[in-house]
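$ run holo --ligand "adenosine-5'-triphosphate" --emit tokens
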Amino acid sequence: MSSGTTRPDRPVGLPIRTLTIEVLGGPDEGRAHTADGETVTVGTAESNELRLADPTVSRYHLELSRKGDRVAVADLGSTNGTAVGPVLLERGTVAPGTVLTLGRTSLRVGDGPTRTLSLHDSGALGPLRGQSAPMRRLMAQILRAARTDASVLLQGESGTGKELIARALHDESPRAKKPFVTLDCGVISPGLVASELFGHERGAFTGAERRHLGVFERAQGGTLFLDEIGELSPALQTALLGVLERRRFRRLGGSEELSVDVRVISATHRDLRAEVNANTFRLDLYYRLAVVRLEVPPLHQRVEDIPLLVEHFLGEAGYTGPLSALVPPPLMATLLAHRWPGNVRELRNYAEAILAMGEPPALEQAAGGPGAAPASAPAVALPLEQGYREARQKVLEDFEVQFLKALMERAGTNVSLAARLARMDRSYLIDLLHRHHLR
Ligand SMILES: Nc1ncnc2c1ncn2[C@@H]1O[C@H](COP(=O)(O)OP(=O)(O)OP(=O)(O)O)[C@@H](O)[C@H]1O
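-- output --
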């Protein structure tokens, strides 16, 4: 199997038609912008490509991108919405020439000149595989960002490869020989995040029996990857901002100030620009984290990557035969048509299962597909006769037990594998298993 060296025989540039935006009305009337790349964001915050002064426009109001002959419009959770005539538009496409209204501002989107975007010249970058144009575009952006010390924010659905990309950013950077440390802000209990970030001194709080080094200290000189950054509480957002601004911090319960030389990469499955608009994520922290913002497309938007990825995962699992013997063309056609809600992770599990079982397992039906439960049917029995608090507790406990049983069955009782599949911290999983007497 040779997927690691696959070199698509395509040119290393992608010509795209860009966009222009003219401000026809409102406080910014007369301004215009021509896009450099495929997307343009509009809003009042500094990091928008088209920054407006109109106070009725949100900080991150709108994203416009080319979709063939049309222009895709995505409202980023703005306060006053985006309208075409009397119709409010959250997401959709419009023809060039359409006038959009944002608060008191009106904009006309139009065709811009053609530009050539650079693509990575192969289907591999470190551990990453992908030969589709979006993936090779992303690889080119990763290589460019890796050479700088800029903070990078990765945004994409779960399982799209954000952690692998963070790793590639580190491996391709001048910090490659220094540590790469990950903290998943979504799976550790909220009370422990501060001590995981900054460490603590012995006796800093009940149970702190010895000094603990936080991730900033362990990543010194290297890269810190903060996964699920959108889950940070407001207090921790403030504390993290302080460290990033001052480049210094103290362990919890400590008095010594320690200096930080760490490059921060963070990731989220949510659009933090909408969280900034809603005031649930600090704008100043967003600026610090998203000096470079990379969007990782879901797998169904880059289906050309599927054969290469399947071949790669089978090869990693030890398969040396021809791809078509395990995945004949009709099965490959099914894989290309599947929606892959779990993205590349789901594809990897699927490829490994084909090899383990010697035959293709059934693909899970996406929610809403044929056979899915009607939207109004409750997913769990609701114990309405109990009070809210007790009922919530009971439903949660039932869910945890069912989830853990299914998880341990899938993982063949291997706790490390189970933690990986469930994307949770291994020690937290062990705690949960003990709590429910499943171990
Ligand atoms: N482009 C790729 N090439 C090779 N392997 C990939 C690629 N993208 C993802 N994977 C594999 O898919 C799995 C999921 O990737 P990863 O954990 O990086 O996703 P993620 O976006 O960080 O997910 P989550 O948000 O759930 O943490 C991993 O096993 C990873 O190695």
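-- notes --
The chain has four domains: 13-116, 124-295, 299-357, 388-436.
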